[in-house]
Amino acid sequence: MMTIGEYKSGARAMLLGNYSVCIAAILLGEAISAVASMVFLNPGRGNFGSMIYLISSLIILLLTGVLHAGYKTMYLHIARKQDAAVTDIFFCFKNHADRALSVLALLIVISFICSLPFLALLYFISGMRITRELSIMIPLAVPGRTLLILAAWACFLVFVNIRFVLVFYIYADDPYQGTMFYLSESQKLMQGNMLRFLKLQLSFLGYALLCLLTFGIGLLWLIPYIHVSNAGFYDTVLKSRVSDSFEESTLS
User: Fold this and answer.
1) 74 lies in which domain range?
2) What is the mean pLDDT of residues 130-142?
3) Global pTM?
4) Beta-carbon contacts of residue 104 (< 8 Å; ≥ 6 apart)
């Protein structure tokens, strides 16, 4: 298994000559998301207007989520020394978009269900309230408890969702499977590798803090760096699993 430094050095090597494609793809995706938000997210008046706003927000979240899932295809191409193009971000829309939508919707549902206990704690302990405009208000009357609940909530979501981080890399390799296949395969690949993946993500924390000094411009460099490293991680655990399966079949 490769080390964290090897994933990152491999990503830097693969990105040479591909940063222009990555930056163009990021800017295009963000522009599409911004335009969609401006056109369709117009807060209405009253309960009906708020409900329409909420539904529109969920639809845009799903559609832009599928768009961003297409980035995995581009980064996977780069990690594998294959030709990458800006249009790779539309991969999910061109290859069974309904399945990509169902995968993303299921991931959102899982995160929501896992969040319910913490939302209940915020409601009863911190006095969280939902306004008529469907926005959440959390008064800081008990900031210590509130911050503790928020920290526990974030850690639990990381613990739950880290096992599903590879779903759209798997989808990029095989967009013809059912929804549960991608979640199941991601869990299998991440078994025994979750801590290593978490360490890989934390190794970028210093760079992320430095990007704050550039008012976010540095993210155009950091985002491809992170995702190509993740694509390399996916390829490594995939090859390791194939190798293990081959050895088991040979022994049997």
Assistant:
1) 4-244
2) 52
3) 0.85
4) 62, 65, 66, 69
Percentage of the chain modeled with pLDDT above 90: 56
pLDDT at 39 over 80: no
- pLDDT for 128 equals 63
- For the four alpha carbons of 224, 226, 229 and 235, in that order, the dihedral sign comes to negative
Going by C-alpha positions, the residue among 220, 244, 222 that lies closest to residue 30 is: 220
Strand partners, 130: 136
40 lies in some domain: yes
CA 203 to chain centre: 17
Q: Which residue in 156, 165, 85, 172 sits closest to 116, CA to CA?
A: 156
Residues 89 and 40: their CA atoms lie apart, in Å, by 22
Q: How far, CA to CA in Å, does 152 sit from each of 146, 149, 174?
A: 10, 5, 35
Whether 251 maps to a domain, the answer reads no
Per-residue confidence band for 133, with pLDDT thresholds at 50, 70 and 90: very low
Instruction: Single out the residue of 18, 71, 40 nearest to residue 227, CA to CA.
Output: 71
Cα(178)–Cα(228) distance, rounded to whole angstroms? Answer: 26
The total number of structural domains that make up the chain: 1
One-letter amino acid of 45: R
